[in-house]
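Ex. 9. Protein: 23S rRNA (Uracil(1939)-C(5))-methyltransferase RlmD.
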Amino acid sequence: MQKNDTAVIDITDIGAGGEGIGKADGYTLFVKDAVIGDKAEVKVIKAKKNYGYARLMQVLEPSPYRVEPKCRFARQCGGCQIQEMSYDRQLVFKEQKVRGNLERIGGFAPELIDQAMEPVIGMENPFGYRNKAQFPFGTDKEGNPVTGFYAGRTHDIIANTDCALGVPVNKDILEIILAFMKKYKILSYDEKTGKGLIRHALIRYGFTTKEIMVCLVINGTEIPHADDLIKALTKIPGMTSITVSVNTRRTNVIMGDSYEVLWGQGYITDYIGKIRYQISPLSFYQVNPVQTEKLYSLALEYADLKGNETVWDLYCGIGTISLFLAQRAEKVYGVEIIPQAIHNARENAQINGIENAEFFTGKAEEVLPGYYEEYTRKHDGQAARADVIVVDPPRKGCDEVLLDTIVKMAPEKVVYVSCDPATLARDLKILCGNGYELKRVRAVDQFPMTVHCETICKLVRK
Ligand code: SAH
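Predicted structure tokens for 23S rRNA (Uracil(1939)-C(5))-methyltransferase RlmD:
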């Protein structure tokens, strides 16, 4: 097949990015926005030797899994990839993704996976789940300020203040900001020229406390007539924190390095389970609080703590999992690379009166081996031990040096929380080749309508 060729194909599979996959005379085509089960007319936009990419021209026979998207921008917007797939089918897709990776990359036998795998945990209402949104600002053809989301793989802004994954109050806040900008002729930042003031609005909402934070990221030192904006924003019930973060760099990084309070306090508070967290504009915090609570409860269940254990929580962020585990362990050590996050973790421990959690700043693959060696030296060659080790790495997974140290410390259990099933499978292969057995695996859908897939696993020492 060649560029611009058209074909009618059956979509028989789903790619890692949520795209539909079908064959035209044995030639594989990846089709964005096509749903598994569709019969569709497609047009080749890029042809490689053995496969190509095609555009969905027309759905001839819709898949039984195809649904009307809730958001009219679902196809253009880069935020959602699979909103046109029924939610039940999305969950099957994610479960199969985990299973496929465990088989192909992890080398696990299908029977073993059958035994370990538990049903995926989905959401009752898979919309409006995000507690955080970062809206970029731009200018439309008429010169009006607009805000919304980036179109897939570009920085073109789709004007939309009403994202289906976010909370309804986002719209009220954004409309206030846009009206304020119009009134005082305040310009949106323009990436091409580096001019204009308003770059992004970060909005956070505490699902349990109903507290709201607005942080405006600006290309300048202050917002003119800010009092007027504050007056309007504070009419919104729950408004707790209004801040600005200065970012004058020509960069894709959204936030500046610091922030200043314009009104109220510099943070909002929220709960996961019984643990209270203070969240500042710069803190990392899980975006789906409903599913996070289920995920952390599972982590606690998989760790199966009795109260006398020593636990390590590697890649601990602001100590979310650590503090959850500390409720049931003798001692929890958290390790995280970002100093600010460790600062938050210590604060969060204090707010909750948790005294058995200790935090270290540094790379997990340096801190844990360092601790292990020093301990062994100080204790006449007796090895440092842990009862449970939890890891929750970024997408690239764990460093091999870290996995080696985990094996040496020989914890009874390892709980692996992963946001990428491919690197998860790779790391599990190493652990299971070195004395561990995969006991339980479960996907928890933290990001409905997207292809992102969170998994939690329990490994037990043989
Ligand atoms: N467990 C936390 C955060 C998980 S996200 C939670 O549930 O909220 C992964 C975290 O790993 C991020 O906070 C990131 O800053 C941190 N990180 C990335 N590379 C790291 C490394 N090499 N060592 C330690 N932490 C790292």
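Check your answer against this statement. Residues 284, 286, 315-317, 320-321, 335-338, 341, 363-365, 392, 394 surround S-adenosyl-L-homocysteine (CB under 6 Å).
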